[in-house]
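Write out a record, fold above all:
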Amino acid sequence: MHPEILNSKIQEFIGSNLNTDIANLLLRGIPFTEVDTKLIVEQIEAKKRCEKKLPTWFQTKNIYYPNKLNIEQTSSEITAKYKSELISGKTLIDLTGGFGVDSFYFSKKIKTITHCEINTELSEIVKHNYKSLGIQNITCLNENGIDALKRIDSQFDWIYIDPSRRDDSKKKVFLLSDCTPNVKTFQGLFLKYAKNVMIKTSPLLDIKATRNDLKQVKALHIIAVNNEVKELLWILERDYEADFRVKTVNITKTKKQEFNYAFDDESKSNAQISMPLTYLYEPNAAVLKAGAFEILSNILDIPKIHKHSHLYTSENLIDFPGRRFKIEKVIPFNKKLIAKEKLSKANVTTRNFPLSVGDIRKKFRLKDGGSLYLFFTTNITNEKIVVICTKI
């Protein structure tokens, strides 16, 4: 950490050049000799990345930013806040603290937080930033989290861990066994020191395979933001042996779409099937990641239009964890019939269909956008159809 970066004039320069082209900035020259130019450029780039992801940090004075990789790997404020709503108690230890966003939000719900970060510079940065943010109930340890847990040798209400998804060559990995630390190896240790454990994993993980890797799973939270899956959160509870709950959430600017079910109920369920009715529904990314295709039909009491299409339909409009559409017309997938619709611009989606969106746009010369939504899919009689909709 280089404290001179916090000089008021340098901070003002960083703030006023967030939207400046870095190449042009370097060409003009940076008017500070007491600080390496590279460090100032890194601060500009890192702060810019935080504008939307970490607005609290972005808007707070005297924040020191780590490199871009640390910003990339950290939780967003949106997901960190969601995680904080799942916990309660007096003590929590964050074994892989990183830039400290999750611990910051945990500190609003837990009396005492221990933040462990093995990287000395990053640990110093986080400690400094907590002071700037006015946080007083987080202790920062520049220590390997596993070693700290063993050394402290006491009970916590919660353990939180976000294993590093980079290998020794800085390449991305996502399997539990490839991450550091390997939670498959240490989960027994975690449950020894805490009744509750929260593990953040890659959204790429296979849920069924991971279920077999982890023990005493009480819940799995699948978090999507604006219909993009960001995190899988596994909640372990000491001595828990029942079926776990899957809780999907899609957080948008205006609401949270939620759908919850018992994991084993999906394999026991059979969806209703129907021809397209008055309304069409497309599940959000969190539900699709969960693979909750049959249980969704059962719980909401709405049929699918084909077992493998994963599109749902109803006569009456319902609340739904995803996008909702009014069906204007359903036509066979036929070039002449589609031509009669005189479509030049539309939003195209394919589900259980042999052509890609790109192939369809090219074939029918369709531009992207507009008020119409076209779903190219397959119905219950295995006919290829086009469902023409407007969004609700």
Observations:
- The chain has a mean pLDDT of 94.
- Residues 37-53 form the longest helix (17 residues).
- The chain has three domains: 3-53, 72-242, 267-391.
